[in-house]
Amino acid sequence: MHITQLNRECLLHLFSFLDRNSRKNLAKTCHKLLEVFQDPLLWSLLNFHSPVELKKDNFLLGPALKHLSICWYSERVKVCNIEDWMKNSFQKDFCKRHENTVSDFLLDVCNRCPNLLSLTLSGCGHVTDDCILQLLKNCPNLKSLKLENCVQITDHTLEAVTLHGASLRTLHVDFCRNVTQAGLERVRAKCPSVMLRAERSANMIPDSKPGKKLMLAKGSRKLVQL
């Protein structure tokens, strides 16, 4: 039996075991398999591990997408989580080349994936509060939002959760150094049903501008600005 003689349900099941590149390559072989590749039911879950993957034409964004994960762990990507004023020219050039990659992708998700249930972002140093705000507004069914080492995320995202995260049940803001304890307390007060986790966030030293340094005062645990 040839693969094209299988019914659609069987083909969808077969495709579900393949990675995105393999699905795309198989879809190029005939029109019937291309139709299976384009079936929204195949694209309820997407995981990305590098900026390059977001620009490939080997996946489909649509209303069927329920779970999205963008997790960058490479040493090169970690450069984007360094404060801008501390980066050298090479690091700034590297960040400039893909600083809008995730933001532009998330904008597409906002416009095309209204049924998103969970979003995980890790190491996405260029993602801003505005990106998360738009997602919360356009994806009203979002139940899980997990942010890790997203350095531009601040209390504005926490405020957006209290205003637009009616369906949210899980919120992680781990290693987000510009989130404050006050912002976390507001979420706890206004959204008691949300399971909130903020590992190493509010206790981390926030970004400081050039010419200003944050250090521990002698004999104290409080940060002072010099």
Automatic annotation (TrEMBL):
Residues 9-46 form the F-box domain. SUPFAM superfamilies: F-box domain, RNI-like. Keywords: Ubl conjugation pathway. It comes from Emberiza fucata. CDD domains: F-box_FBXL22 (cd22129). PANTHER family: MITOCHONDRIAL ATP SYNTHASE COUPLING FACTOR B (PTHR13382). This is FXL22 protein. Pfam families: F-box-like. GO terms for cellular component: cytoplasm. InterPro entries: F-box-like_dom_sf (IPR036047), F-box_dom (IPR001810), F-box_LRR-repeat (IPR050648), Leu-rich_rpt_Cys-con_subtyp (IPR006553), LRR_dom_sf (IPR032675). The lineage of its organism: Eukaryota, Metazoa, Chordata, Craniata, Vertebrata. Coiled coil: none annotated.
